[in-house]
Design a protein that fits this description.
By secondary structure, this protein is mainly α. It has one domain. It is built from eight helices and no strands. It has helices at about 1-20, 20-45, 50-70, 70-95, 100-105, 115-140, 145-170, 180-185.
Length: about 190
């Protein structure tokens, strides 16, 4: 359910673009993101900081797109968001000596510090590359191609990256100790 909610504004943006064009789609994306944040706030009582940042970016860049009637602003929005997320991870690691991924996910996943560091730098690199890739598609192809890339390419590349990272992290994840079967069996003269 959470995954569907995360992609809700992108899917609506894509559908609205196909039906009515970039400016209506941008307005739909703004409204969908506001609705997403409102739903999260109402249903869980909390909204993650990056979701607030994403809302701010879509309102600013989407609003500029609609007001200036210039699609360049909305095309920059994913790059700005990717670079902000990657930049936050990098600043946390280099200047504050704090791995923000470990801070966010450490209670759900137990990994050695080296694995957390690799994961952190992997995400930094992924966000940097995705930001550049978004700009390349935005400026090298027509808007229709960029919108399709935003939905299918962005989500597809994210999925491939997450699967690759899961394969890497799998070597560090240990299963809880199982009781020794021999110790669990009663010995001679003991009751079962």
């Amino acid at each position: 359910m959470k995954l569907l909610l995360d992609f809700f504004p992108i899917v609506l943006f894509f559908a609205a673009y196909k039906l009515w064009g970039i400016y209506v789609a941008t307005g739909v994306a703004i409204v969908a993101t506001i609705a997403q944040i409102a739903w999260l706030r109402w249903s869980t009582g909390k909204v993650e900081p990056m979701q607030w940042v994403s809302l701010g970016i879509i309102v600013v860049f989407g609003g500029a797109t609609i007001l200036a009637h210039d699609e360049t602003f909305i095309k920059w929005k994913p790059t700005v968001l990717y670079w902000l997320m990657g930049g936050a991870l990098l600043v946390g690691q280099l200047f504050f000596r704090r791995n923000l991924l470990k801070s966010l996910m450490g209670s759900q996943l137990e990994l050695p510090d080296q694995a957390w560091r690799v994961m952190n730098y992997s995400w930094i690199g992924f966000f940097a590359v995705m930001g550049v890739l978004n700009l390349w598609v935005a400026y090298s192809f027509d808007t229709d191609t960029w919108v399709s890339f935003k939905l299918f390419g962005g989500i597809g590349l994210m999925l491939v990256f997450v699967v690759a990272q899961a394969l890497y992290l799998n070597r560090f994840i240990t299963e809880p100790d199982k009781p020794d079967e021999a110790a669990a069996k009663p010995g001679p003269g003991e009751q079962a």
